[in-house]
Each structure stands twice: as structure tokens, then as C-alpha cells.
Amino acid sequence: MFTLFAGVIAFVLIYAYLIYANRTPPPSLAFLRGPVGGSIFLGFTEVMRSISIADYTEKWMNDYGSVYQIPMAAGTREVIVLDPKAIAYILAKDTVAYKRTPVLKKLVETLIGKGIVWSDGDAHKRQRKAMNPAFSNARVRESTPVFFDVAFKVKSIWDSILDASQSGEGIIEVQEFMNHLAVDNMGLAAFGHAFDCVSNVSSPETQPKPPMKRGPVDATNAAVHEAVAAFKAKQPTGVAAVLYLLIHILPMIMDLPTGRRQMFDKLSNALRNILEVAYAREKVVNGAEGGGEKNDASTTALGLLVKADRTDPTAKISPDELMAQMKEVLIAGFEPPAAALTWGLIEIARRPEIQSRLRAEIVEFSENNGGEPTWDQLTAGFPYLTAFTHEVLRCYPSLPVLRRVAAEDDILPLTHPIITADGKEITQVPIPKGAFVSIPIKCMNLAEEFWGPTAKQFDPNRWLVDFDDEVDSDEEEAHGKPQKRVKINGSVKEKRSEGKKLRAKEIQGFKHILSFGDGPRMCLGKGFALASFKATCYVLVKHFTFEFPGGPKTELDSHWSLLPRPKVKGAEGAGVPIRIRRVDD
Ligand code: HEM
Questions:
Q1: Please, which domain of life does this record's source organism belong to (predicted)?
Q2: What are 301-333's pLDDT values in tens digits?
């Protein structure tokens, strides 16, 4: 009886505290304005995880200025930063003054290990130094044929589906195929290992079974296939929300032997096999003392990492770190590229004019040059495919928000002043040690403040203008009324009339978008991501047409895999069924 009474009192006290914390920011942040409300237990956590994160954070920016604070889970607060100068400052001091949040750190340590994503400061610098050569332009150039080979493998499976169909058309679960393609790309390019994932796409109801024989799957590949399947499994939102809350209060629950934890353990064992092969191969290629001839095997990302560990004392990484690196490269190299490609195919399917323009550019190259483009051609040529790639990255950043915790008291510089809760104008924002700081990438990429009135529209044409002369003064002008054409960097770009410049160019980062992050933690695989995206689009758009069975207005929804993914509203899991036909049919 007493225990029940004590339990009720404890619950009431916690509940009262959460109501208080939800309404009242701590004194160190009380000078910042911000929205009140959200859930008593989770604050605006669900909003910050939702598909509408950019809409909310943009509205709050318009109401409270470019730096504000919001209530989050378990009575915590988060400072939201949407000022370009402040963002550049935070990301430049990343890993030292701004670090991963304790919850994320614990999660990464538990599931993946103390690799580059987990580490901060000097440990991060050392690991980054070891990994850089494995992600250089030279490596991306060498890997580009692999991306074409994997895309052609998808093509041949889709061809067999169409061959078996009476109507010459097939409904393909494109997200499923892009997941498997991205894993195969990473396996071959980074580890020199064929996971053979594309040939093992499961065939849901909507998709005719590929009439092909599947070979036996070894234990390593089976574990990776299982991991890919588990990543895309749907989590019930209610349970996920409760777990998220509990993790903040009791981080040790991440140590529980959950299904996901066991799956990660299996994945470690599988990757250990690949690592052992890489160690053995490196020994054979370079001899125990090193210095031998390089060959294909030793120049995979993994081969270079193994070699760097032995040959460069300043870039030494322990076997545990190497293991964590492999898991990170597999996960970071699979999830965002697969999501970006799925979004790309969605936009292609719902916008026939973009699809035709892309195909025309690809076919023109193919007719003039014969084989597939090299990395240099993919990078320097293909203005429309490049514009399309940038627009997919802008509109659909895989990581909608970057979250950090301030490791010391700091002062953020601002591009434009903000008004505090007591009505003062400030040009710098004091950030107390321990404050959670969030940068909503998706909002920075899509806010009208930075991208003008057409910010929310998917429009690759915006990348074909002379960016520095872009205007946002007039909707008609800003949306595709080219006035004259100018030559920039050897390619013809459309230039619009003179006027107010877009604020987007104040944003640092790749192409003024934050989809790859910025600073010391900027995406290591950016080059791989761009080359594999373009190579895959090249092959698939050249050979197939895409359309939604329900028409271009098909409604989309979001689905949580490791990161947010698109899905067709009402479809099972992360389903994105798209109808394909051969181009020449
Ligand atoms: C469209 C594709 C991709 C996108 C949008 C993307 C995005 C990002 C972002 C935003 C970060 C920074 C995270 C942070 O600051 O907390 C990041 C880091 C990272 N990415 Fe990517 N990524 C992509 C593809 C890849 C690929 C293909 C690889 C591997 C080949 C890769 C490997 C990594 C690694 C290892 C890091 C951690 C870097 C560090 O902490 O120093 N990414 N990525």
C-alpha cells in the first residue's frame, strides 16, 4: 500500500516537474524566445523527427528570429540555430567546442563502436586522417565503373521482370532496389567484397518474381542482407517515442539485448570475416614489412585503411576502431545514398518533363561518346543531371537535423541581430556549456528566407542560373524566366535579370546546402555519394521510363528506417511502387 502511495507521489512530482520544465526555460537560456507547448513528456521531439520539421522550424524562425529555444524530451531544451554565420561557426568548432549528444554517443558506442562517428577532438582528427585517402577523388574515380556495374545488374533484373510480363511493364519497389544497390556499391567500392544484395531483393506482391536463379548466400552476405531488412523494418511510433523518452532518463537501456542489438552483433561478426580477408590480402600484396606494389585489392577503402594503420604512425587505428569504421562506412554509405536515389526516382516518376530532359542529356552523351561516362565526365559534364542531383540533395537531406551539445561556454556570432525575450537586440548569442544546439538542415535548405519564393518547389533549373546573380524579388522572375544566357566554368547557364541576391549564398557547405554537413565532420563519402547517384540515374533513366501507378499526384508519407524515408501513402512499410517500361518500347 505504502509502495503504491510512494509510486503515485513520485509520478505526480515527475509530472509536475515536466509541466514546469516544459513551460519554463532554464535561466541560462531564458533570454531566448521560442514556442511553448508540445507534449509534456517529449516537448517538440516528435515535430523535430517529423516530415514537417522544415515547416515548423521555418515558422518559428519567422516568429522568434534565427536563434530560438524549444522544449524537448524529459524537460530538456534545445537551441535551434538557423543563422548562416552561427552555423558555420558551430560546424567549424565541431568535435571540440560542439560535440555529439550523450544519447547519440551512447547509441553509436553500443551498436557500432568507437569509430569516427563516435569520436571527438584529437581522436576524431586521427581517425579522419587515416580515412581520408580511402575517400579521395582518386578512389571515387576508380570506383565509378563499379557503380555502373551495379546499376547494370539492377537493369538486367528489371529487364527480366519486363520480359516475363505480358504488358511490357512492371511495378517495381524502387526503394527496396535502391537499398540493395547502395549496399552492393559500398561492398565493392569500400571493402572489395560482393555482398550480392541486388540479386536478393525479396519480391513483394506488387512485383513479379525476377525469373532468375539465386545462388547460395554465404554467412557474411546473409548477415548483411538481414541487417538491410532489419533497418527498413517499421517501428511502431508509440513504442519508439516511449523508448526515446526512456533513453534520455536511463541511457543504460541501450545495453539491453534487443533484437536490433543482436542484429548489430551478427553484422560485426560478418564484417570481421571481410576484415580478416583484407588483412591477409594486404600482407600478400605489400609483404609483412610493407612497400610492395599496389594492386586493386589494396586500393579499396578498407585496403587503404589497413595499410595506413601499418605504415603511418600518426594515423594509427586500433582493430576495434577499424571494425567500427567498417560498420559506419557500410551504414553511412548505404542509408543516405539509398534514400537520395529513391527520392530521385520519385521526382522523376512524378515529373515527366524532368525525366525527358534528363534522358535527352544522357542519350546525347551516349550517342556522341559510346560507352558509359568516366568520373571526370560525370563530374564536369551533364549540367542537367548535376542540377537534378543538387536539387534532390537540397530538397531531401538524409539527415534533417544536426544535433550537438556545447562542451564549453561560448558566444555565437550572428549574420543578422535577433530580439531577446525582454526586447533587446543582440548580435551575438551566449551559449552555456551543456546546452543542446540543433541545426535543422532541411529548413536551411528549404526556407524562403534563403532560397526565395520558389524555395519549396522541386526545380533543378535553379542550379542552372548564375547563382550569385539569382534574384528573389519577383516570383515570376525567380521561377524560370531566363533573361539571357552566360557562360560559366565552360558550361552554358541561364542567367536571370538583376535584382536582390538570394541569401542562400551566405550558407557555407557544399553548394550552399547543408545536406553533407560542413566543417571537420563534413560527410567523408560525398564524392562516392555524388558519383554513385549520377551513375545509377544515368543507367536507369537511359533504359527505363518511370511513372506512379496512381498518377503524378500520388501522395507520399514518411517512414522511419535508420533515417526518415519516403513511402507512398498507404503502401506497406517503406513501399515506393513505381511502374517502369523499357525506353524503346
Ligand atoms: C546522399 C548521400 C549522403 C549524404 C546526404 C550524407 C550526409 C552526411 C552528413 C550530413 C554527415 C555529417 C553528420 C554530422 O555532422 O553529424 C555525414 C558524415 C559521414 N558520412 Fe555521409 N552522406 C552521404 C553518403 C555517404 C557515403 C556514400 C559514405 C561512405 C562512403 C558516407 C560516409 C560518411 C562518414 C564516414 C561520415 C562521418 C564523418 C565524420 O564524423 O567525420 N556518407 N554524411
A1: Eukaryota
A2: 787 777 776 677 777 778 888 888 888 888 888
What is the residue with the minimal CA distance to atom 23 of ligand 1? 336
pLDDT in tens, 206-238: 455 554 445 556 777 887 887 777 766 655 555
Per DSSP, 189 falls in state: I
CA 509 to chain centre: 15
The per-residue pLDDT for 491 is 38
Distance 522 CA to ligand 1 centre (A): 7
Query: For residue 398, which atom of ligand 1 is closest to its CA?
Result: 5
242 CA to middle of ligand 1, Å?
28
> Positive or negative CA dihedral for 510, 516, 522, 523?
negative
Q: Where are the domains of the chain?
A: 2-103+402-439, 132-398+511-582, 453-501
532 CA distance to ligand 1 middle (Å): 14
Best probe residue, ligand 1, of 524, 533, 565 (max atoms within 8 Å of C-beta): 524
Q: What are the residues facing 565 on neighbouring strands?
A: 559
Q: Given ligand 1 and candidates 81, 390, 523, 536, which is best to mutate, with the most ligand atoms within 8 Å of its CB?
A: 523
* pLDDT (tens digit per residue) in 55-80: 999 999 999 999 999 999 878 899 99
Reported ipTM exceeds the 0.90 cut? yes
Q: How far does residue 123's CA lie from ligand 1's centre (Å)? A: 18
Which residues does the chain have with pLDDT short of 50?
Answer: 205-206, 211-213, 288-297, 469-498
pLDDT at 471: 41
Q: What's the confidence (pLDDT) of residue 243? A: 66
Alpha helix positions (H), 204-287: 219-231, 237-249, 259-286
List all residues whose CB is within 6 A of at least one atom of ligand 1. 116-117, 128, 190, 328-329, 332-333, 336-337, 340, 398-399, 402, 515-517, 521, 523-525, 528-529
Cα dihedral sign, 323-536-138-197? positive
Spacing, Cα 98 to ligand 1 middle (Å): 18
Spatial CB neighbours of 512, under 8 Å, sequence gap ≥ 6: 467, 504, 505, 506
Record the pTM. Answer: 0.88
Query: Which residue is closest in CA terms to ligand 1's atom 32?
Result: 525
Long-range contacts of 261-267 (CB under 8 A, 24+ apart): 261/110, 261/111, 263/226, 263/227, 263/230, 264/111, 264/112, 264/227, 264/327, 266/223, 266/226, 266/227, 267/223, 267/224, 267/227, 267/327, 267/330
Q: How far is the CA of 557 from the centre of ligand 1 (A)?
A: 24
